[in-house]
Design a protein that fits this description.
Shape: globular
Low-confidence stretches: none
Distance between the termini: 14 Å
Strand content: 5-15%
Structural class: mainly alpha
């Protein structure tokens, strides 16, 4: 979770020097932040809310890709 916080801070700090985002870009960024917030809160339904049914999830802690249902079962 500390990695996510550090990445978020770095991204926000870089935004100070970047161009302004349009409404669509801002909406996408807000969805990303909301999904990270649910993960940090350990929301058991984060996969249902943020991962499509046909997605494959593969993180640093996973030995191989997982389906949404497999990721939910392991988390």
């Amino acid at each position: 979770m500390k990695k996510i916080t550090i990445i978020t801070v770095l991204l926000f700090s870089s935004m100070v020097y970047s161009q302004q985002w349009n409404a669509a870009q801002t909406e996408v960024w807000n969805v990303i932040l909301a999904s990270y917030a649910d993960i940090e809160k350990q929301d058991v339904n984060w996969t249902d809310k943020w991962v499509t049914e046909d997605a494959m999830v593969w993180g640093g802690a996973y030995p191989m890709p997982r389906s949404r249902d497999e990721a939910k079962a392991w988390d």
